[in-house]
Design brief:
about 20% strand
Length: about 300
């Protein structure tokens, strides 16, 4: 009887090679980066071969790892294709949806039951990650992203434009330079979201040329932390209007600049060209667009 194949360790190797990051591989597999590291260690001990080398950006395949990676990648892709075939035989189809964690937790996941009730033969798999995905390589059917809708080579469909407000402690604004235009916000520290993307997108949506200052300032993983930092006078935060209604009403925060909202700064459903020829994908996109109509405040 042959030795048992270390399939979990091999999958960890393939996903780490695919994404160049233990953290990204962990997100895909639904485990911790430490678990990925342990599986790679076990595989290295079993084979006696160094599979990765560390880089400033993460990890990259070693010469030995690069030799076996393509064949193992094809093997796992074949397994996924076979599972899709089995699912189709059973009359069910699985769609993989990639979106940012905040959208998944606050909007998408609570509503998925409604989609499943209407489409019981379509299973939804949600990958909640802030990392950019390659739809073809990562086998993602629909990506829901917050941005300006510019995704070269892909098809994007506008879903909704949630309103973000630049807010700050009233005393900070009273003691500091007057804010008349979006550019004046740069005279203050900018409090950033975890990806340092919201301010950059907001400035660009208002017509400003790209500037390194858009991404400077302390970053926070949670909107509650952003609100507290703004209340403490640490800078200006860009937050959804529904998240700061109470703080503005009580006077703990003030709107730094009241401008018409740039509708291009929105949520988009992004797919490969021709993806909506798949009835399941077309049904999911139609459901998304229906659900987001009239629900801008919830986004």
């Amino acid at each position: 009887m042959g030795a048992v194949l270390p399939l979990l360790a091999l999958r960890a190797f393939v996903e780490t090679g695919r994404h160049g990051s233990l953290k990204a591989a962990a997100e895909v597999m639904g485990v911790s980066p430490g678990a990925i590291s342990q599986q790679l260690k076990l595989l290295t001990e079993r084979t006696g071969v160094r599979l990765f080398v560390r880089t400033r950006q993460g990890v990259s395949l070693s010469p030995a790892g690069a030799q076996v990676y393509p064949a193992l990648l094809r093997a796992f892709d074949t397994i996924e294709d076979s599972m899709a075939v089995l699912g189709a035989i059973n009359g069910r189809q699985t769609l993989t949806i990639s979106t940012v964690p905040s959208f998944a937790a606050s909007w998408l996941v609570p509503r998925l039951g409604g989609f499943t009730a209407v489409h019981p033969d379509i299973e939804i798999r949600v990958e909640a990650s802030s990392a950019l995905v390659d739809l073809r390589r990562d086998r993602v059917d629909v990506a829901i992203r917050h941005g300006l809708g510019h995704y070269p080579g892909l098809v994007s469909r506008h879903l909704a434009s949630p309103v973000f407000l630049p807010v700050a402690c009233p005393r900070l604004l009273a003691d500091g330079p007057r804010i008349r235009t979006p550019k004046d916000c740069l005279k203050y520290p900018l409090l950033q979201d975890s990806d340092r993307s919201d301010w950059r997108l907001w400035f660009k949506a208002l017509g400003m040329a790209d500037d390194a200052r858009f991404e400077r300032g302390p970053a926070f993983d949670d909107d509650v932390l952003l609100i507290r930092a703004a209340e403490a006078g640490q800078g200006i935060a860009l937050l959804r209007d529904v998240y700061v209604q109470a703080e503005i009403a009580s006077g703990r925060l003030s709107v730094a600049l009241d401008r018409p909202w740039p509708t291009a700064f929105a949520y988009y459903a992004v797919t490969l060209p021709g993806a909506d020829e798949n009835p399941a994908i077309a049904s999911f996109i139609a459901w998304l667009q229906h659900e987001t109509q009239g629900e801008q405040a919830a986004l």
